[in-house]
Design a protein that fits this description.
The complex is a heterodimer of chains A (about 300) and B (about 500). By secondary structure, chain A is an all-alpha fold. Chain A is built from twelve helices and two strands, in the order ααααβαβααααααα. Chain A has one domain: ABC transporter involved in vitamin B12 uptake, BtuC (Orthogonal Bundle). The longest helix of chain A is centred in the first third of the chain and has 30 residues. Chain B is built from 17 helices and 22 strands. Chain B starts with a strand and ends in a 7-residue tail after the last helix.
């Protein structure tokens, strides 16, 4: 039984689905990283993803226009980001608690809208696989990397882009500054609130795209609690990656590969109880976080601390 | 370029407080104006108004004769006014050049132009002697260098009036001399500088003119050449101040606090105190001089039982208290005035009374069988507050609303009321006004006469020299020498920078 796992086709299958599974994590965690680097822990990612996933699904169901569906999902994410920023930055709410609120709100609202507007789950046609010319015909790597839907490619493109924005632009400099020493940024005439609003809205927009990537590119359907904890894993991946884009990507890949592995184990009917297999990725996350907790050099020191002008 | 800046009839009212009362002040290009005053005299408020952080209730600001209005520091900067805060406004995880570039328009649009900034930083460094590596991470720099980064930041933004808020508080005597050199160069290049301080000897040595504030009002304006430290002290406090203390002779007696080969780590797990040995005798004040961060804090906390001792021993009157809990150390008759009074000295939200009984609340007479005896507590605290001159509206007032000086007096009262055999006083007068400082000094001297062994840790050399019977200089976790209290500041400064002195 176990030797089935090592058949070349299966390995390629595992890796290819690992890459695809990484997509929602990448969008959500790269976005979340922005928010955290600016000093705001946006714990409501899961809720934002759910709402956006529903919006994307619903628009795709009604119009079959996937681009419009994606755009409106991103917009829904941005609006949730505005709400999150209003709670965390303007009202200075305790971020852990308000994040849970956002999550529950998203969970409930997406379910409600689904029941009222759709009712029975109907599959839609999502983003098709897009074979990149030449590259996709490469042996092994072709099917793994270059025969994916367009949202997968964009997700991986976001990683170097995020690195570039954080490290090479004035906006990135400001985002990092307000996350470490908001007082210093404030004293130089930078609006801490504005920068954090931008970061949080960017984060939530990306969480929105993450949600859409589930409902209109991966599963092509919506159901209650479609994300089943992915948003929270994305938050954990940011810590695991130490607020550095490429390490966050590594974490996302590691997690989704193990996830793909356990899905294949279940599919192939290997004699491992499915509940145990299903736990693997989460156990891995916990172990990874224990080790990741040690590297704190790049931690945004003002994370979860609302900024208030002293004296 | 700023020629003159003038504050006219500036009044600033906070709810219940008149922080500035019709203050007039003028500063010109090419001069260093010292703004002298006690804590709470209104210096910082006034300067925050000038820097656009506060808005005056009344009065106006004139730059080069034109009335201006500042909505924020950005407006003040645009007029050429820069401020170097006492607590540096730097991002520790950033490089020097990133700190300078932060918030500036980049020549490359949305992309940063760190190379260009770096070049200009080097130029400014060469011009004014502000040497610092543009690519160094700020948290790795010494405090003196961080200060240079702050000045460079202001100069980079074309500030030609620099407001320096207590800039020397964090520097060694040598660094102060170097820093004064930089200030003179800045002045000679045609900049105007406002130097905020309550250290008289520094004011005398660096400024051209002095404006003194007391209770929010200008109480004196003099040319520095035409005044003396005594006159400035009188202006600032409003009465004659005692700075020299008569101490009774100390008869040789036994060491009460004995530290042998003590090794302690700092918060990062690195060695902070390295096999340090020290004896403090009954009726003696042993002063520890040293630049902040050389292990003084860790030493004090280790003695007080608040930090793990890795090796070596601490003995109180022959009894080993190494790695005992704070409670056990207190029981061994050790009192501790911690450096961070708001964190370790008091519970901010607790009332004056609650803070005064933190250590003794759980035993008679203040409590009996788990219940407080509020009558006793009230009587005890009332006595302490009166005896130690703590100015508080009531015993129920939360300590966070008291002034620094009064909080320190409250801590002093609590710690000395137990009549300890050993007193560890860490920075007992930091940030405390002259009046309260004088009072605290007097209490320490009295306690010495009562036979307490006092370990005085202070970065204020004047204080260490005025109070100590012996001075131990600490550098990188070791005692580099023990010298008599009349040792010159220059010599102490050299030792504080690591020069060995034969014991």
């Amino acid at each position: 039984m176990l030797e089935q796992l090592f058949a070349p086709a299966v390995i390629i299958g595992i890796l290819a689905s690992g890459i695809q599974l990484a997509t929602p994590y990448l969008y959500a965690s790269i976005g979340e990283m922005f928010s955290q680097v600016s000093g705001v822990l946006n714990l409501g990612v899961e809720g934002v993803m759910l709402i956006a996933a529903f919006v994307a699904y619903y628009v795709a169901l009604k119009t079959s226009n996937l681009i419009l569906a994606l755009a409106l999902a991103a917009l829904a994410g941005a609006l949730m980001g505005l709400l999150t920023a209003f709670l965390s930055v303007t009202l200075k709410a305790e971020q852990g608690i308000s994040g849970i609120g956002i999550y529950l709100f998203g969970l409930g609202l997406s379910d409600l809208l689904f029941l009222v507007l759709v009712g029975t789950p109907t599959a839609i046609r999502g983003f098709p696989e897009l074979d990149l010319p030449v590259l996709s015909s490469m042996p092994v790597l072709g099917p793994i990397l270059f025969s994916q839907n367009i949202l997968v490619y964009f997700a991986f493109a976001c990683v170097p882009l995020a690195w570039f924005v954080l490290n090479k632009t004035t906006l990135g400099l400001k985002v990092r500054a307000v996350g470490q020493t908001p007082e210093a940024a404030d004293s130089l005439g930078i609006s801490v609130a504005r920068v954090r609003y931008i970061a949080v809205i960017v984060a939530a927009t990306m969480a929105g795209i993450a949600g859409a990537s589930l409902s209109i590119a991966m599963f092509n359907i919506f159901q209650q609690n479609l994300t089943s904890g992915m948003g929270f894993i994305a938050v954990a991946l940011v810590y695991f990656g130490g607020w550095r884009p490429f390490r966050v990507m590594l974490g996302a890949l590691l997690f989704s590969m193990v996830n793909a592995l356990q899905l294949w184990i279940q599919t192939l009917g290997i004699g491992l109880p499915s509940d145990i297999a299903g736990m693997l990725p989460y156990i891995l996350t916990i172990i990874a976080l224990i080790f990741a907790a040690r590297q704190i050099v790049t931690q945004p020191t003002a994370l979860t601390k609302p900024f208030e002008r002293g004296e | 370029m700023i020629q003159t800046v003038e504050l006219r009839n500036i009044t600033k009212r906070f709810p219940g407080v008149l922080a500035n009362d019709r203050v007039n002040l003028q500063v010109r290009a090419g001069e260093i104006l010292a703004l002298l005053g006690e804590n709470g005299a209104g210096k910082s408020t006034l300067m925050k108004i000038l820097y656009g952080m506060y808005h005056p209730t009344e009065g106006e600001i004139l730059v080069n004769g034109q009335v201006v209005q500042f909505k924020s520091p950005a407006d003040a900067l645009a007029q050429g006014i820069g401020m170097i805060h006492q607590h540096f406004q730097l991002v520790p995880g950033f490089t020097v050049v990133e700190n300078v570039a932060l918030g500036l328009k980049s020549s490359r649009g949305p992309l940063t132009d760190l190379d260009a900034v770096s070049k200009r930083v080097r130029e400014l460094g060469a011009q004014y002697g502000l040497h610092v590596d543009p690519n160094a991470l700020v948290w790795q720099l010494a405090v003196g260098q961080q200060q240079r980064v702050e000045i460079i930041k202001a100069l980079y933004r074309d500030a030609s009036l620099l407001i320096l808020d207590e800039p020397t508080a964090v520097l060694t005597p040598q660094e102060v001399q170097e820093f004064f050199g930089i200030l003179r160069r800045l002045r000679d290049a045609g900049n105007a500088l406002i130097f905020i301080s309550h250290k008289l000897y520094e004011v005398i040595s660096i400024s051209d003119r002095v404006t003194a504030l007391r209770d929010g009002r200008v109480v004196g304006e003099v040319e520095t050449k035409a005044t003396t430290q005594q006159e400035l002290a009188r202006m600032m406090v409003g009465r004659q101040v005692v700075t020299r203390w008569e101490k009774s002779d100390m008869p040789p007696s036994d060491a009460v606090l004995q530290i042998k080969q003590l090794a302690v780590s700092n918060d990062k797990g690195l060695g902070a105190v390295n096999h340090l040995s020290l004896d403090v005798r009954a009726g003696e004040i042993l002063g520890i001089a040293g630049v902040s961060g050389n292990g003084q804090r860790e030493l004090a906390e280790a003695i007080a039982g608040m930090r793990r001792v890795n090796a070596g021993t601490v003995q109180i009157a022959g009894k080993d208290v190494t790695n005992c809990s704070p409670e056990q150390v207190i029981a061994a008759s050790v009192s501790f005035i911690p450096e961070e009074r708001m964190v370790m000295g008091v519970v901010r939200e607790f009332s004056v009374a609650e803070n005064a009984i933190l250590e003794t609340h759980n035993r008679p007479p203040l409590s009996k069988r788990t219940f407080f005896d509020f009558k006793q507590i009230d009587a005890h605290v009332t006595k302490l507050v009166r005896e130690y001159d703590v100015k508080t509206p009531s015993l129920e007032t939360p300590v966070k609303s008291l002034s620094g000086g009064n909080i320190q007096k409250l801590i002093l009262a609590r710690e000395l009321a137990r009549d300890p055999r050993v007193l560890i006083a860490a920075q007992p007068t930091r940030g405390v006004d002259i009046g309260a400082t004088e009072y605290i000094h007097k209490r320490l001297i009295d306690q010495r006469a009562a036979g307490t062994a006092i370990l005085l840790i202070s970065e204020d050399l004047e204080e260490v020299r005025a109070l100590s019977d012996r001075i131990a200089v600490m550098y990188e976790g070791e005692i580099v020498g023990i010298v008599p209290p009349d040792t010159s500041v220059e010599e102490l400064g050299l030792m504080m920078a690591g020069a060995q002195k034969n014991l």
